[in-house]
């Protein structure tokens, strides 16, 4: 059983990784070999759908445990479970466009989602006032660039000086692009290295066996 | 403690109130500030304008409720421009709420412009699977969409889907993006392999991260945040929520800049009073 839990996933990962890599770098039709990646894509899509079910089971088990043990703030777990059962039942009984599900979606889900994101704006403004200080050269560059970008993005900047949008556009396209390209190149090389380590079984933290070698 | 020091310890609720007022007042009393159109927005408009009648645009509205106010106006303006030119739309989302948001934008415009569901546009709904779904749709759109639209009606029953069998049959990809899955998945797995033009719109926080793809031509222009939506609305000639939000954005940005200036004056005054260590 230990082999099934520890080594079998590694063998599967290596085999499927190899299939995808071979199909990408070799002309399979030339060698009269079937392209299995299309089948694997469909399998992945089905697996994603099942992952939601696993998520629901996991979330339910966690919150039911909190409620049974009456942990601090267990009322939030009661609300979470009641919402899950109510919305899930309505959605499955009436479909996602049923009157009940659509009512909760339009009048609860969307306003809560928007409000949480909008709160960020208030916190950012407050944080900018308290901590956006010219403490160093780097901080000064950051603040000056952000102020120019804010003026370039809002129409009021154009009213103050016609060329603010052009200046803002230059910051976005030249220094910003250069920086992002460097970061993305580094990230891509890192992702490639980690992928090779996963395929070779050197990196095992992804299936919970604790760390790599 | 002088007044500047007191300002440094201002109640955050006052700042929240100021930002709320800066956002709300222009909604009731618009200033009508001019909005210049950026080259990126012009490129998006021209890419759609250059499509022939009966062409198909594939939209993936990959957003959640937080960014919908920035991105929904783009979908509305796109629907107006496309329907005016008799261009067909196939819509979906890789984010669970995006397809409904797109539907809310497109349906009233389609009804007002006399367009028919199934003939002029189809909404495939939310499709799970991210990049794997895109890869499946490259070869077989119906399989990637599980064979049904957002109302569980079979795709085969729609005249439009008779000629759009895969992503190979669409003329342009229009993807809104706020994270992952988003533009990078569509670029890597659909636009690049199929040599299709990819355009769309991004939240302003994402916009700086995709500039290099606009420069390299992998993205055919792109709309940046609510400003991009406002510019696009202006080009389409249909002022909507994007243009309406510009005055709020202007006042909000000015308030942030003023607060940064005030915060720095207070910071330097407190430094002078206490020495460099006091400012830490």
Overview of this protein structure:
The complex is a heterodimer of chains A (213) and B (280). By secondary structure, chain A is mainly α. Among the domains of chain A are: 100-131; 135-213. Helices cover 79% and strands 0% of the residues of chain A. Chain A has helices at 2-6, 8-25, 37-68, 74-94, 99-131, 137-153, 155-160, 164-199. In chain A, helix 4 (74-94) packs across helix 5. The two termini of chain A are 22 Å apart. The mean pLDDT of chain A is 88. Chain B contains 14 helices and six strands. Chain B has a six-stranded parallel sheet. Chain B is an alpha/beta fold and 280 residues long. Chain B has helices spanning 3-8, 12-28, 39-49, 68-84, 98-112, 131-139, 141-144, 159-163, 183-194, 204-207, 211-216, 225-236, 241-244, 246-274, and strands at residues 56-62, 88-93, 121-126, 172-177, 197-202, 223-224. Helices cover 54% and strands 12% of the residues of chain B. Chain B folds into two domains: 3-30 and 247-279; 39-244, 3-Layer(aba) Sandwich (Rossmann fold). Chains A and B meet through helix 3, helix 5, helix 6, helix 7 and helix 8 of A and helix 2, helix 6, helix 11 and helix 14 of B.
Estimate the helix proportion of chain A, in percent.
over 70%
Spatial extent as radius of gyration of chain B: 22 Å
The number of helical segments of chain A is 8
What's the N-to-C terminus distance of chain A?
Answer: 22 Å
Number of helices of chain B: 14
Structural class of chain A: mainly alpha
Strand order of the largest sheet of chain B: 3-2-1-4-5-6
Largest sheet of chain A: none
Strand content of chain B: 5-15%
Radius of gyration of chain A: 26 Å
Name the features:
heterodimer; A: 213 residues; mainly alpha; extended; B: 280 residues; alpha/beta; Rossmann fold; 6 strands
């Amino acid at each position: 059983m230990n082999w099934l839990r520890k080594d079998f996933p590694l063998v599967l990962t290596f085999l499927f990784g190899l299939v995808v890599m071979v199909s990408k770098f070799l002309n399979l039709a030339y060698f009269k070999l079937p392209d299995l990646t299309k089948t694997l894509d469909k399998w992945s899509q089905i697996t994603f759908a099942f992952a939601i079910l696993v998520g629901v089971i996991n979330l339910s088990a966690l919150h039911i445990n909190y409620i049974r043990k009456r942990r601090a703030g267990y009322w939030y777990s009661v609300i979470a479970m009641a919402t899950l059962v109510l919305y899930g039942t309505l959605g499955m009984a009436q479909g996602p466009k049923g009157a009940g599900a659509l009512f909760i979606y339009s009048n609860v889900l969307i306003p809560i989602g928007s409000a949480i994101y909008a709160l960020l704006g208030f916190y950012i403004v407050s944080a900018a006032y308290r901590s956006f200080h010219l403490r160093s050269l780097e901080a000064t560059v950051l603040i000056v660039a952000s102020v120019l970008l804010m003026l370039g993005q809002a129409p009021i900047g154009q009213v103050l000086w016609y060329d603010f949008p052009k200046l803002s556009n230059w910051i976005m396209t030249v220094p910003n692009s250069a920086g992002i390209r460097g970061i993305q190149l580094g990230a891509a090389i890192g992702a490639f290295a980690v992928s090779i380590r996963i395929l070779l079984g050197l990196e095992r933290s992804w299936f919970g066996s604790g760390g790599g070698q | 403690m002088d007044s500047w020091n007191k300002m440094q310890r201002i109640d955050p609720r006052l700042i929240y109130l100021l930002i709320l007022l800066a956002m709300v007042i222009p909604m009731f009393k618009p200033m009508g500030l001019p909005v210049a159109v950026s080259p990126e927005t012009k490129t998006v408009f021209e890419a759609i304008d250059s499509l022939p009648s009966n062409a198909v645009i594939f939209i993936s509205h990959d957003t959640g409720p937080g960014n919908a106010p920035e991105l929904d106006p783009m979908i509305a303006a796109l629907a107006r421009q496309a329907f005016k030119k008799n261009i067909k739309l196939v819509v979906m989302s890789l984010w669970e709420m995006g397809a409904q948001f797109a539907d809310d934008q497109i349906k009233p415009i389609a009804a007002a412009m006399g367009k028919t569901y199934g003939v002029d546009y189809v909404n495939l709904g939310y499709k799970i699977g991210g990049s794997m779904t895109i890869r499946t749709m490259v070869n077989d759109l119906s399989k990637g969409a599980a064979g049904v639209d957002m109302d569980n009606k079979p795709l085969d029953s729609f005249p439009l889907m008779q000629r759009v069998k895969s992503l190979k049959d669409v003329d342009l990809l229009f993807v809104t993006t706020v994270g992952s899955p988003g533009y990078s998945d569509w670029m890597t797995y659909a636009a690049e392999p199929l040599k299709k033009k990819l355009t769309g719109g991004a939240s302003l926080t994402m916009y700086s991260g995709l500039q290099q793809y606009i420069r390299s031509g992998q993205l055919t222009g792109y709309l940046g945040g609510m400003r991009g939506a406002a510019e696009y609305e202006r080009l389409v000639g249909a002022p909507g929520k994007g243009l309406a939000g510009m005055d709020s954005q202007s006042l909000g940005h000015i308030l942030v800049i003023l607060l940064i200036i005030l915060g720095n004056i207070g910071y330097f005054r407190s430094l002078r009073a206490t020495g460099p260590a006091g400012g830490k």
